[in-house]
Amino acid sequence: MPESENQTTLVQGWIDCLRAGDPSARDALLACAIDRLERLTRKMLKDFPGVHRWEQTDDVLQNAILRLSRALQAVIPPSSRDFFRLAAVQIRRELIDLARHHSGPQGLGANIASNAGFDESARLNPADPADETHDPGRLADWTEFHRQVEALPDEEREVVDLLFYQGLQQAEAAAVLGVSERTVKRRWQAARLALHAALGGRLPGV
Fold first, then answer.
1. Among candidates 2, 54, 65, 53, which has minimal Cα distance to 29?
2. d(CA 177, CA 204)
3. 149-188 as b/e: b if 16+ CB within 10 A
4. Distance of CA 76 to CAs 30, 39, 140, 174, Å?
5. 141/111 Cα distance (integer angstroms)
6. Neighbours of 105 (CB within 10 A)
7. Is the Cβ–Cβ distance between 50 and 139 less than 8 Å?
8. Closest CA to 87 of 145, 23, 158, 147
9. pLDDT band (50, 70, 90) for residue 49
10. Helix or strand or coil: residue 107?
């Protein structure tokens, strides 16, 4: 059985166990999501110059997992497809909150100098300009990107959730959605074009 189908089968099995009253299945679902969420969080934080200095990747990951855990307490997704969608929503909301927190007028990125708290050697060996600790405009771009993803038609948003937020390959996403890989490619292209237009040509990280 292909890996993507096996993963989908495992997730569906844990969902069925959770619906049958087995609370340990919730931990299994969370464990399944951790690897996906960690890889995505690391990818995203590379493009958050004002966040990475102040928020460790593991902290952001923990917050996203807590969000997902609370969501699973409130509702049990009926399928693996719904679970992946739920997980993507939680990481997206966490990243939106981070961007808002750090890009606003009271945010750390806007109010703390990049060399604050550094020793004398840091002063004598300044960081490369590319390592500046904040870029509010770029954070705003990311916030708007996440907002526009949520505004996409359901089929296109679901493909973005799986490919971008969950890090699945197109063949994996096709298996989760029960459609052809060609359909996934078409929806992904349509989503990219819509986001490109909505963001005025600024399409961070996609």
1. 65
2. 25
3. beebeeebbbbbbbbbbbebebebbbbbbeeeeebbeebb
4. 12, 24, 33, 23
5. 19
6. 7
7. yes
8. 158
9. low
10. coil
For residues 37 and 89, what is the distance between their CA atoms, to the nearest angstrom? 11
**Type and span of the H or E element at 136:** helix 136-150
Query: What's the pLDDT tens digit per position in 73-104?
Result: 888 899 888 998 888 888 788 777 776 776 65
Q: How many CB atoms lie within 10 A of CB 114?
A: 16
Which is it for the CA torsion 13, 16, 21, 25, positive or negative?
A: positive
Of 61, 87, 92, the C-alpha closest to 75 is 87
Domain residue ranges in the chain: 3-108+135-198
What confidence score (pLDDT) does residue 6 get?
Answer: 66
Tokens representing 99? 């961007």
For residue 95 the two structure tokens come to 């990243």
